[in-house]
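User: These chains co-purify. Model them together.
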Amino acid sequence: MTDRAALFEYLLRLGDSTLILGHRVSEWCGHAPALEEDIALANTALDLIGQTQMWLGLAGEVEGAGRSADDLAMLRDVWEFRNLLLVEQPNGDYGKTILRQCLFDAFHFELLTELTHARDDRIAGIAAKALKEVTYHLDRSSETVIGLGDGTEESNARLQAALDLLWPYVGEMFAADAVDAAMHKSGIAPDLAVLRSRFDTRIDAILTEATLTKPDSAYAQSGGKTGFRHSEHLGHMLTQMQWLQRAYPGATW
Amino acid sequence: MYAQMVTSEATQDDPDKLAAFQARIDAGDKIEPKDWMPEGYRKTLIRQIGQHAHSEIVGQLPEGNWITRAPTLERKAILLAKVQDEAGHGLYLYGAAETLGVSRDELTEMLLDGRMKYSSIFNYPTLTWADMGAVGWLVDGAAIMNQVPLQRTSYGPYSRAMIRICKEESFHQRQGYHIMMKMAQGTPAQKKMAQDALNRFWYPSLMMFGPSDTDSVHSAQSMKWKIKMNTNDELRQKFVDQTVPQAQYLGLSVPDETLRWNDEKGGYDFAEPDWSEFYDVIKGNGPCNTERLAARNKAWDDGAWVREGLMAHAEKKRAARMAAE
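Assistant: Joint model of the two components:
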């Protein structure tokens, strides 16, 4: 794999994860448990879509094949997506949505913090901008997880069920492959093992305060960020997200 | 206009106090929450502000219907920002209503069990992407017609909420018109979609102002109190006069064969919407009334455990703080 190919792959991973999560969060619009949550969810989705525009825009530039961020978002099929499996998981109840958000935010925060030192100004610049937003995302999602975990018996049970369901998707975020290794070697991406230990420290503290029990299984699903095997959910999401671009090829909107 | 047919409440207060109150309004004073106010003024305002707030909240649904299908990342971001603004408008307005002694939860329950209304316009479906253009251009355009004068309304908190809201609404209308422009200048299919959206949204938009109220006692009272600043017909005329040239610029036809410029009055003559359809929609028989209310009820019911959980946690924290002190 050339450096450019690895960089392209890496940028797709960043942009596809924010795109797919942004889309999932936007599905809540108008249906949240309280007005403040509606506003916060729309805000989070908006930030993530904005980050997607930057990451996929840069990916298209690096690829050099004339594909725009929109082309990449709207005209690829499931097997070409490089997002984490975690973010394509359906919203479920609000507990699942907010727990998925918290797990991703805790990873995303550490990752972006490191990417601000990337030996590529474009990446460092995007990371710095995104980090401001993600700092707030993490504050909010972790506070909500704590509030609901340490709330009523029902809210605790729902959060625990969500954690049990989503925990197998945590490992993929930190499983380094050839792309991660190449990016680390060229001074762009951090060492994922270091990130994992920071993530664990933070998540352990959140879960303790939330009176939730971390599942003891270390089993990790994989296949999202490599694109080898996504879940069945992604295809359905794409049929909706890409509908107009697919139905009216070449139109401008 | 997000408040339609708001019935003003009769008021049976001390005539001297009423006269002094009216004098303040006539002098352009703002009435603040702690000031004396007639019971009818308070109740009418609750109904009107509440209806407006509910419209913002239910209004998230027809647009939310297209957020997941927005054609580009930029359009998706803009639509998200718009819907987020609307939820924020709901929040300011519920806040303004709360200063009149009614809680947001009470108002929400009245929306959910049908005691309070929201604008008839949100009971129409959004079927194509062009509807996102039509909603911004026509629906927000009609709302602005009403809301701009309401910035000068007599009730301070309502007036201040309107000032914030109007700033954002004009951006909403522009983005809607921009969507229409792209489509009107686009492929034949896009142009057809844009015309179809205008055909479906034209009359429902005219209905947003409510039926003629020139002879309405309720409207006269509300206008005297500066809760309502113009008659429904004045605002509707202004809306048509502003919108027809915009449609012409887009190369779209307003679906009204009787539409003519009238030199004498300096405005367009136009066909009235079908008011029997309007009353049907208000009564709950519009194309989407059932779905809209069901969606809001489901969100509220499904969210109960979240609200209860967060409250319980806040209570535990408060108790722990108290114990530590």
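Residues 156-184 of chain B form the longest helix (29 residues).
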